[in-house]
Amino acid sequence: MRNALYIKSRLLIVAAFALPAVVFIDGCKSTATPSSNAQGAMVPDDAALAARVKQSLAADPELKALPMSVATYRGVVQLSGYVDSELQMQKALAVTRGVPGVLSVSNDLHLRPH
Q: Number of structural domains, the chain?
């Protein structure tokens, strides 16, 4: 009888240490689920989003020749480079905001020195 009690107590001790280890290891697994932002909206693929923004900017005759670069991170698009006027800057921002998947736009555009 004493031997059965001893075995039960040893099994409980082993289980007490094994369960947290299993939970800890399981929490370290990498998953391939899509990211979401704080509002729960799905975050688009950054490379595809940047390509769509560049395509939209190039489709505008007034903006296509301007030296602008597009960078994206989790749906946030950063425009950088130079424009000739404040109107071009506002138009580039508006075109970028109009692209599906853009969550926000960071403006790093500058007026070209004359």
A: 1
